[in-house]
Design goal:
178 residues, six-stranded mixed beta sheet, 6 helices, Rossmann fold, alpha/beta, two-stranded antiparallel ribbon
Length: 178
């Protein structure tokens, strides 16, 4: 049986999409079939054996599209393994990461039925030139920051098959010979 995983994401400025792409690519290296879709474009979870859902945390809240996805797909998500991630802190500062994880845990606690197999917070990116009004008034003077840890994202993705209790499609990464 071929295992198909949905990696879905909500994003405002693109860094969560990039993170989801990295996760999807890593899972494909292990031989899994992976669909990568924005949350707003997912209309059914039929045919998937696992879900990876990611979205940013902004001003203490997880992106509304991710919260809506959980609510609208409650029955299906309760019957399969799910991993969730958030981008939140802007720096690799332990206190910022702990604060973002606390905010994320608080958001997930609103869904008392939801028991994800894996929860992760990654450092994100901030580009004040991408802000729209009125956020640009409040946050436009904050300096740009990009401390995304692509290796940490890749390592987390490599651990997902075991955490999600999926049979690996292969014993390890698929080697492509050119």
């Amino acid at each position: 049986m071929s295992i198909t995983i949905l990696v879905t994401y909500a994003t405002r400025y693109g860094s969560t999409k990039e993170t989801a792409e990295k996760i999807a690519g890593t899972l494909r290296e292990f031989g899994f079939r992976v669909d990568l879709e924005p949350v707003r474009e997912v209309h059914s979870l039929a045919g998937y054996q696992a879900i990876v859902l990611g979205a940013p945390i902004e001003i203490g809240r997880w992106h509304g599209d991710a919260r809506r996805f959980l609510s609208e797909n409650r029955r299906a998500l309760a019957m399969m393994p799910v991993a969730v991630f958030a981008l939140g802190p802007l720096h690799r500062d332990e206190s910022e990461i702990r604060e973002a994880r606390g905010q994320f845990d608080k958001e997930l606690a609103k869904f008392d039925w939801f028991k994800p197999a894996a929860i992760q917070v990654f450092v994100g990116r901030f580009d004040p030139t991408k802000l729209s009004f009125p956020a640009s008034l409040f946050m436009g003077k904050i300096p740009a920051s990009d401390e995304m840890d692509w290796e940490a994202i890749r390592v987390w993705a490599q651990e997902l098959p075991g955490v999600l209790e999926l049979e690996k499609a292969s014993a390890g990464p698929v080697m492509h010979v050119i």
